[in-house]
Design goal:
single chain; 182 residues; alpha+beta; Metal Binding Protein, Guanine Nucleotide Exchange Factor, Chain A; six-stranded antiparallel β-sheet; 22% strand; globular; binds zinc ion
Length: 182
């Protein structure tokens, strides 16, 4: 009887370890498969559309490269208050710090300021009969979202960003990665 119980417990432990390993491998594999992903490289990334299509998941490709929009209220980052850095999910470029994130109530993760002036670039967007300013990644020119002038101080800006194209790393992990490369 005891032995049976022991093997059941062992099996459960083994199973949960396996599940954890699989998840970890998946995350690493995603970045490994994409040779353009780096949290530290500042060189511009210019890649043909077909290559992006083969490297990115369909939902990241749709938003980043085809200027799509994720459904509101669907991002796990929308209400997240975790401390760390939001990177471009396509190329790894650091985009926003968690301390500039705020609850805008618009349904998408919102920030009032990018990490540096060059983190993002701006383009006029007159689609859908609206005059808006599109925000793209400063390194790989992936579509991120839009910026509006109704944000909180000190900038008065609201960067309304699709969570699908954000890659969040907690403060400690981000620091460790940075130290490894410098
Ligand atoms: Zn990028």
């Amino acid at each position: 009887m005891k032995r049976t119980l022991l093997s059941v417990v062992t099996a459960i432990i083994l199973l949960s370890c396996n599940a954890q390993n699989t998840d970890k491998t998946k995350t690493n594999m995603e970045n490994k498969n994409n040779p353009h992903y780096s949290n530290t490289d500042t060189n511009k990334v210019v890649v043909k559309d077909e290559e992006w299509k083969s490297l990115l998941s369909p939902e990241v490709y749709y938003i980043a490269r085809q200027k799509g929009t994720e459904r509101p209220w669907t991002s796990k980052y929308e209400n997240s208050k975790e401390i760390g850095t939001y990177y471009c999910a396509v190329c790894g470029n650091p985009l926003f710090k968690s301390d500039t994130k705020f609850e805008s109530g618009c349904g998408w993760p919102s920030f009032y300021e990018p990490i540096t002036k060059g983190s993002v670039i701006y383009l006029p967007d007159n689609s859908f009969g609206m005059k808006r300013t599109e925000v793209e990644c400063g390194r790989c020119k992936s579509h991120l979202g839009h910026v509006f002038e109704d944000g909180p101080p000190p900038t008065g800006l609201r960067y309304c960003i699709n969570g699908v194209v954000l890659d969040f790393k907690k403060a400690k992990e981000a620091e460790a990665n940075y130290n490894k490369k410098h």
